[in-house]
Write a structure and sequence with these properties.
Strand content: under 5%
Shape: globular
Strand order of the largest sheet: 1-2
Largest sheet: 2 strands, antiparallel
Number of helices: 11
Number of domains: 1
Radius of gyration: 19 Å
CATH superfamily: NCX, central ion-binding region
Number of strands: 2
Length: 311
């Protein structure tokens, strides 16, 4: 019973913290003339990816490469299929200002293609980990050069500028980050205990539930952003988080200890990650930000969950 209470409390903290994080990020974006995409793809994406980074680096350090790799692959699959699938289903209207296909589809696809190339030999070395970190540097450089876009929204021009108090905004932003991260942490820990009570296999607990738990910040933050009409922030969060997961989390994990990976044993998972990423690029190319796209992504999620259940 105590684990169920912790689960519910952690979920409430996670949702409340996500709303706080979105509100303060919006304030920063308007104050400094930054686009919502830039905030979502950098500040929020890196913050919500901290659970994946911590879990994967710790798993690698303790000699559990399969757990480190499974966490990242599972999280990235869930970010696209579950998070964006639900965003497209729930959001009242998704009309992003940014052309994601022209500007960002490569950054969704590049890390996956590079990771697949690196894993052909079944090893992610320290050198390759350093290259992944360099890829994140290239992405941040791109965002810095491209991201300072003035928000041109006719309705915003009639609104009073949001009150901005640096100390208060910073403290609230930190509180939102901590609430999201620790809320997700306690959520997954309590979920693991509940799973053990029902005798669910260790693989499902380790790969599926940890990936689900570390994806909870992206899920809650992106849905909160979408419900507030911040589609650029929601989609930017997913693209940036997936980039950070592969480049920073896996790169850091490989630097901590080279990762051995049985490619043949996880071909379905790698194929699912590739298919989900290609679907994201296709959705962006055709501007299919609608319920049909959401249902299609959730179908891929259902196939992934069915595979895990029978693994």
């Amino acid at each position: 019973m105590s684990d169920l209470v912790i689960f519910i409390v952690a979920l409430v903290v996670l949702i409340g913290s996500a709303d706080l994080l979105i509100a303060q990020s919006e304030t920063i974006a308007k104050r400094f003339g930054l686009s919502e995409f830039f905030i979502g793809a950098t500040l929020i994406a890196l913050g919500t990816s901290l659970p994946e980074m911590a879990a994967s680096i710790a798993a690698s350090w303790h000699g559990k490469p399969t757990l480190a790799m499974g966490n990242i692959i599972g999280s990235n699959i869930l970010n696209i299929t579950l998070v964006l699938g639900l965003v497209f289903l729930i959001a009242r209207r998704i009309d992003p200002h940014r052309d994601f296909f022209a500007k960002d589809s490569s950054w969704a696809l590049f890390p996956v293609l590079i990771l697949l190339l690196m894993l052909i030999d079944g090893m992610l070395s320290r050198f390759e980990g350093g290259l992944l970190l360099a890829l994140m540097g290239a992405y941040l450089l791109f965002l810095i050069r491209d991201g300072r876009e003035i928000l041109i929204e006719e309705e915003d021009s009639t609104e009073a500028p949001p009150s901005f108090r640096p100390l208060k905004t910073t403290l609230l932003l930190i509180a939102g980050f901590l609430g999201v991260i620790y809320g997700a942490d306690y959520l997954v820990l309590s979920a693991q205990q509940i799973a053990r009570m029902f005798h669910i296999s260790e693989w499902i607990i380790g790969a599926a539930m940890i990936a689900m738990g570390t994806s909870m910040p992206e899920l809650v933050v992106s849905i909160a952003a979408a419900r507030r009409g911040k589609a650029d922030m929601a989609i930017g969060n997913i693209i940036g988080s997936n980039m950070a997961n592969i480049s920073v989390a896996l790169g850091g994990a490989a630097l901590a200890r080279p990762l051995q990976f049985e490619v043949q044993a996880y071909l379905f998972d790698l194929a699912t990650l590739s298919v989900a990423t290609l679907m994201l690029v296709f959705i962006a190319a055709n501007k299919m930000y609608n319920r049909a796209a959401g249902i299609s992504l959730l179908i891929v999620l259902a196939l992934f969950v069915q595979h895990l259940a029978t693994a």
